[in-house]
Amino acid sequence: MNSYQENLQEVVGTSLDALYAQQQKLASQRRGAQYSLYYAQGAQLTAFDNLESTSEQLEAVRLSNQQGVKNDNLMNNLVESTHLIQSNVATTVSNSATAATNVQTAATAVAKLAGDIGSALNIAAAACYGTDIYKKTLEANAFIRETANQAEYASQKAMEASSSSSEVIAKELESSATRSKSELEKLLAAAQTQFKSLSSARVADQEALFTASQTEKKAEGALEDAQSAESAIDGTVQDSNDTLNFNLTAVAQGDQQITVSFQPFTSAFTQLPEQCATQLGKTDGSTLRDPAQHYFVFVVSADKKSSIKQDQVESTFAEYQKDRFTEVTPDDQGHYQTTLKYGDSCLDFSGKPLQLGRDYLVYMYVVLDLTYQKYIGSYSNVLSSASPAVTLLTKLPVAQKISFDDDSRQILFMVTGSKGKYEPEFRVMLLPAYQPSTGGLMVAPLPPEAGCSALNFYFNQSIAMQVSSANYQLAHIESSKVKSGKRVHRMAAAVPDDMTDNFGNPLIAGASYIPVVLTTPASGVDQGCYASSLSALDTDPVIIIPSEDHLGQLQPSASTAQVTDKDDSEEKKTRRSAKKNEADDEQE
Fold first, then answer.
1. Is residue 31 exposed (0-12), middle (13-18) or buried (19+ Cβ within 10 Å)?
2. What stretch(es) of the chain map to CATH 2.60.40.10?
3. pTM of the prediction?
4. Residues spanned by CATH 1.10.287 within the chain?
5. Distance CA 232, CA 183 (A)
């Protein structure tokens, strides 16, 4: 290999490595900007929820305070009325007692007079019977007897009136009204204090929302800048790889194969200059022969990159061409592409089988035509620079048909059994839907085949991996069936009353949430060998309703409760059985 080729290959390799490193750096910055935006949006949504909650409480306290003022005015009138009633009742009791005494005295006098007239009638009957005196005395006795009876009745009624008036509890009514007024004043004072406190809290929440909104907009700008820079470096890498490295690309297809493609090697000159051809006597054409006769690709572990040199590649090629090098021939369209299959006797440059979870680099090795080598005076073949690193990873299954069962309060979904020895971990998260209701926040792009999503904030698989374990529930296998040779699991994850959303906020009763499932390798398994998966973000939202126990509803009597619980339990079992049969039919 001449010094020019060595220097050229070194410069190209160094340039591409620098671009790859810059590309990874900008990708890392973009992910960091995504995390910052996610947390900023979470803070804004939390501040928005806090402001709404405080505003609702403030409105409730305002109405209570307004009603309390009205009640206080009514209570003042009531207390004044009880004072007047107490004064009037006291006067009435005194007057009715005096009247009863006077009426009793009059009745006694009338009774005494009736007794005297009765004695006079006895005397007149004995001495003057039948005379005018007797008759007048008889009439007077009849009248006085009637008067005495009426006087006795009036005395009885006067005593009853005095007794009834003394039974009026005006003093207790006055005391009760005074106490009620005191308690109402305390309640009103507490409501006014709470109103002032909530007013201050609302102002603070508004300021917090304003600050969070500013932070969120800055995070959006930072992400847009990071995405713009990454897009620019991606274009630069693509152009540089196309120009300097034969457009060599390697793409891992899951855990089974690596697809490699490149452009063929072309000579700087495809034909001799006309004057030179004439001087050399080439009358049959001046076109030069294709310099490259054979193309090979080989795989190198990323940690062995520094050991890849031209001389070593040529010596290894001479000894292990069939085992460690794969020849690539053009297809019908003239494209150079091949597939390196995992476990199909494909060895890396060191002679080791490909491994899952390990980073690999792909090189292209061009065997030049001997005539061309003699023509240019160099007998070295062409070695490309390394491709970007690729990794074979086992793709974990994606959750399908996600739904919420109201009766069992579980998130249900279907997955196809994984290829690994261990079942993966299924993390069920609830994302607030339609939040904020006005939208306006930056969201992650969805796949082209995805439908409309109710997700109004930035969320993707990378962010889902960062969600705290306190903010998701693990699903378990509820049933399994074999379909088309594959085992299909029906999964379920409970939704407890104290569950939180992905931001760590308690679930809001009656609010809508998007259930998503992140499939990750189980603990104790080599994490680097698997590729996690996230369910579709366009899943229909569900409404989470708290359980009856959480709502604190009153329990019926013991006997009724037993019958009701039994009926409810049987009904729930029937409905769950029907849903399970429907799911089994879908599996079939």
1. middle
2. 247-392
3. 0.77
4. 4-8+11-205
5. 71
Could you give the CA distance from residue 369 to residue 365 in angstroms, rounded to a whole number? Answer: 13
Alpha carbon separation from 422 to 143, 345, 419 (Å, rounded):
119, 26, 8
Tokens 């001046």 identify what position? 286
Instruction: State the DSSP string of 27-50.
Output: HHHHHHHHHHHHHHHHHHHHHHHH
CATH of span 395-439+453-544: 2.60.40
Share the mean pLDDT of the chain. Answer: 86
Taking the C-alpha atoms of residue 303 and residue 286, their distance in angstroms, rounded to an integer, is 46
* pLDDT 10s digits, 76-88: 998 888 888 888 8
φ, ψ for residue 253, nearest 5 deg: -105, 85
In sequence order, what DSSP letters do the residues of 47-102 get, joined into one string? HHHHHHHHHHHHHHHHHHHHHHHHHHHHHHHHHHHHHHHHHHHHHHHHHHHHHHHH
pLDDT in tens, 347-362: 999 999 998 899 999 9
d(CA 385, CA 325): 16
Please state, in angstroms and as integers, the Cα–Cα distance from residue 452 to each residue in 209, 438, 541, following that order. 28, 16, 12
Q: What is the mean pLDDT of residues 489-496?
A: 94
CB 55 within 8 A of CB 202: yes
Q: Which CATH number fits domain 4-8+11-205: 3.40.50, 1.10.10, 2.60.40, 1.10.287?
A: 1.10.287
CB atoms within 10 A of CB 319: 9
Which CATH superfamily, name and number, covers 247-392? Immunoglobulins (2.60.40.10)
Measure CA 471 to chain center: 9
Rounded to an integer, the average pLDDT of 234-257 is: 92
Higher pLDDT, 446 or 271: 446
Q: Which long-range contacts does 154-162 make (Cβ < 8 Å, 24+ apart)?
A: 154/103, 154/106, 154/107, 155/100, 155/103, 155/104, 155/106, 155/107, 158/96, 158/99, 158/100, 158/103, 158/104, 159/100, 159/104, 161/96, 161/99, 161/100, 162/93, 162/96, 162/97, 162/99, 162/100
Half-sphere exposure of 513 (CA within 13 A, CB side): 27
Q: Helix or strand or coil: residue 382?
A: strand
- What count of residues does the chain have? 588
**Which tokens in the block code for residue 470?**
């306190």
